Amino acid sequence: MAKVLLSKKKEQAIQQLLARGTELHRMGRLAEAELHYREVLEVKPRQVDAQHLLGVIRAQQGRLLEALELIGGASPARPDSAAIQSDYGLVLHRLGRHAEALVTFDRALRLKPDDFAALGNRGNVLASLGRLEEAVASYDGALKFRPHYAEVLSNRGHALAALGRYDEAVGGYRKALMLRPGDMLVQSSLANALAVLARYEEALVAYDAVLAASPGDAAALTNRGNTLLYLSRHEAALESYERALAINPRDAMTLNNRGSALKNLKREEAALASYDAAIAIRPDFADALYNRANLLKNAKRYDEALVAYDRARAVDAEHPEAFGAIDAAQAACEWGRVEILATELRGRIEGGMPFTPFALLALCDDPLLHWKCATNYAADRLSVGQPGVAPALRPAVAVPSREKIRIAYLSSDFHEHATAYLIADLIEQHDRSRFDVVGISFGPDDGSEMRRRLTSAFHQFFDVQGMSDHAAAALLTKLDIDIAVDLKGYTKGYRSELLRGRPAPIQVNYLGYPGTMGADFIDYVLADVITVPFEQQPFYTEKIVHLPECYQVNDDRRLIADQTPTRREAGLPEQGLVFCCFNNTHKIAAPVFDVWMRLLEAVPASVLWLLGDNAAAMANLRREAQARGVDPARLVFATRCPLDEHLARHRLADLFLDTLPYNAHTTASDALWAGLAVLTCQGQAFAGRVAASLLQAVGLPELITTSLAEYEAVALRLATDQAYLAAVGVKLAHSRLTSTLFDTRRFTRHIEAAYETMWEIHHRGEAPRNFAIETAV
């Protein structure tokens, strides 16, 4: 009898020790709880609860193998314990044995289907196995039993983010933060998801909350800098990167991003140094290598840029910027390299690879490939299906009429720039009784007379250079713009992204980019019957609008300096015929250059006058001339000068020779305005048909050829038949002042008629369609 009483006392003592140990365990006093569990096990070595709970402490201490042995030893003795199965699964998961952990959690949930902790941990295991949809379902199961389970809400957010379902992830993170306002890991995750969604202002608030609690969080400082960079707040981004680098000076990613902020601030040498520092730490850092190469290219240091691209391509030839080298090679007239890269590039574009469409225009004359390139690029960079971007919607019913149509012109070129030279008088000529005309500028204020002229010409003028795309689009919406006219397309400094959420009901591609945008939120392209015939509609996502005579606007008040430089002052020989081409060097292609060299051979004492755009191109063109048996000295390179002086020096030339596949555009109208005849070869795509349009409008169709053989023959006749060349010059002298090409007032009536037709179509609730404007009387 005494023996039995003793056993009961022992069991009572064990239960008391367990109860006290469990209480201490809940309080987080692990060392004291462990002493109680160990005391139990000294009395009864296989006491299951003590063994299990001591195993839990070992797991909390990070001693996972001991935990596995203890909990695993308890499991066979209590196969009906969901808690033991669940804790065993948790240890297996932390050891990376995810498949076994999943089996164990499933066993626990068969015993206790409403175990929200097991459901949450099972979700973590599934996420670790990459089974994200199943993980979300498991988290949802846990939340059904415990809706305010902060940890599960957070982990569910991580799984949704990994699935690209960022909107849902943001909702989960916000709920988790309501339960745990101080959880900076969740706050950081929320900020990251908002940044991915391009909700940059919200992301910035979230990062600032992280940094208020943890000012030394270098990752948050870097991500905050990235967000500010997206918001075009480059100075603030730089400051954030500097703070991050003060904490972790060898963070290559931050150094790279700091370089981008410096580049945007036009501090090129400092940006280059930052990229170099990133590469010194991570020699295989492809992003930094390509950023460095792009910076050198933009600085026109093409020889250095090509070396940099070679190094970057050796690290990652599949990088999105891998074909940036072709841009540098074109500008440097490195035609051998261009040919090699172009062959590979065509296949990549046809296979769906995104590539900057503008760079393709000077590579080929294929409108189908141009369309494919633009649609690839738009899907990658401008897709309305991207997270956080509103879909392009068109009202299904007619919209109210209004007294005036509100037009916004969008550009980064409202300063001393070719686009500004063309468009200034149009802005001034717009009929203010029928149109409100707004300027949206995202380029620099150079303080020039042209900048002042344009800001005065617009009804309202807004500098959005420091705004995010989202904020700039919101401004357009607030201004109640009817027609947004993108003057950039894909040319340097473009920001067509701000139109992708359709802040205006009608959106138009005009003037800057001669091709399709490939984007479903651009409704129309303004062209003419020569540049984009209606039969080319399959190559355009926009509907085609034909302006009469010529699509290109010109300012008929552009000044030409009275004084003409002497030949000696211009670096030209005193005698001999002067062929010229003032196009940028990236437009000069080998087949056209071959023709030019044959013309120099055929016309004694003649010279070719080109724009001295960069040292690499000048050296390469001289080398190419030498290789074709032409004295390199017969290539004369002009320096850049003010527009009125540039127009005046055209008087020294005899014939402007155009390029193909990318014609002279503003450069051609400059020559014609200055009284210099332009000979062109008409191509198949928009970029190669502009000069033909200009010549037709100015009344010189005889200077339009359709093959390089014809182009060469006509050029030779003009160069050797002085009477014929003089007759063409006389004809141009008369027509430049009487033709439609340089009649800005007439052109304004045409483009206004186009805008009114677009608005009437929209007003009736109809979809955009092709149409042509009749010539004004």
For the secondary structure, the number of strands is: 14
Biggest sheet statistics? 8 strands, parallel
Helix content: 55-70%
How many helical stretches?
A: 34
Q: How would you describe the oligomerization state of the chains in this entry?
A: single chain
Inertia-based shape: elongated
Average pLDDT confidence is 92
Structural class: alpha/beta
Cross-sheet strand order for the largest sheet: 3-2-1-4-5-6-7-14
Gyration radius over CA = 35 Å
Portion in beta strands: 5-15%
Low-confidence stretches are: 1-6, 384-397
In whole angstroms, the N-to-C terminal distance is 126 Å
Description:
Helix 30 links the parallel strand 11 and strand 12 (678-681). This protein has 777 residues and is α/β, with parallel strands linked by helices. The strands form two sheets. It has an eight-stranded parallel sheet with strand order 3-2-1-4-5-6-7-14, covered by helices on one side. It has a six-stranded parallel sheet with strand order 10-9-8-11-12-13, sandwiched between helices. The chain contains 34 helices and 14 strands. The longest helix has 25 residues, at 2-26. The relative contact order is 0.06. Residues 1-6 and 384-397 have low confidence and may be disordered.
